[in-house]
Predict the structure of Extracellular solute-binding protein family 1.
Amino acid sequence: MAQVHRRRRLVAMGGAILTTTLLSACLQNPNASDGGGAAGLNGYVDNTQKDGDKVVTILGAFGGDEKKAFEASLAEFEKSSGIDIQYTDDNNFTTIVKTRVTAGDAPDIALFPQPGGLIELAEAGKIQPIDSVLDYDALATTLVPGFLESTRYKGRSYGAPMRMAVKSIVWYPKPAWTEAGGKTEFTSLQDLAKNTDEIKGKGTAPWCMGWGSDAATGWVGTDWIEEMVLRVSGPDVYDQWVSHKIPFNDPQILKAFAEFGKLAKGDGNVFGGAANIINTKFGDAMTPAFQDPPKCYLMRQGNFATGFLPKDVQADLDNKVGIFVFPPLDGGYGGQPILGGGDLAAQFNGNDPDTIEVMKFLTSDKFGGPWAKVGGWLSPHKTFDATNYPNELTKQMAEIVSSADVFRFDASDLMPKEVGSGTFWTEMVKWMNGASDEETATAIENSWPKS
């Protein structure tokens, strides 16, 4: 844990005037309201760390090679700005950040892997709204649509992304898929189903799928339902579902189960059927696609999937693997949605000019070049320089997201843990083993915390 200066400061008008002067060019969130948290337009959250000392502390969840890549992406900024950025990683981030904030030991900036914990601390008045320290309008213009909405509380946004993950990707073995007559662009899920039916007619299951993940078995199924909710009913219904403004067994959600059921439970659609899906580890799901002959062809999974592909495939990604976006549904939401996630930067020291400068850089389209070049990182900005990406596959992922109409965070990560990492997982396993759509959704609904 980084050392901190134990000097408390009152949130005074003098500090507010100073920061307002520093940020005179900053545009305000057009949806701002005075009801959001303790840090209103005339107030600034404060931690106990010294202001203006050219030291900024950051707390995040990622370590190892990702930490090295993150720090490499900060090096040039540190040199030019003279600011020493001290990053601390903790794999128990969700608990540690709350503990530190409660104890009065908040970092200057924290990088939240999900919006839930960020919103909780924003509600407690511990986080500075980004529209008072960043150019909200500029961010909204360059970011993939949906990110800033994910950090909104009472009309104010409290975090901005510095890294993106994308899940709405369909992977295929390039040579084998082409030989089988597979297409690579689809106007709709119905168009995709027509092509996969043709493949199935030749004797091979089109879809590869594995849900095995030890105690977390079933999470892959939750991603599928989330994808379908976005396509069947759109982002507004998705948001109502996530926040429990509509029940889990609402007819609009049951439609998503039905659509997924057509794909996952259709005769011959998935290699090995239900038993194989549950018993196959998610990281091994696509391995049969690279056998000769292939046992299946398509896998819907996030950008992290490259790390689980066979080693010889990883060594030659651009030639051996292709991807396309999981398409929209005819008769459903009219746009192209993308499901994913990201790391969100939030500020706990609202009137420190050094922290503000680091926030500006972290959340800009200039951040991340060195990280992108080593792989495993995607910018949330449509305007990021794609030449930094190490291969054509990653560039294509970035293009898929930048062309999307809306982005939404993984729903199970936003739901109460009793549901999101509890009954949603376990009931999806029962669903795959034969439980009906309504039985599954009602069981999950009944598990939702009452308060």
In short: The first strand starts at residue 55 and ends at 60.
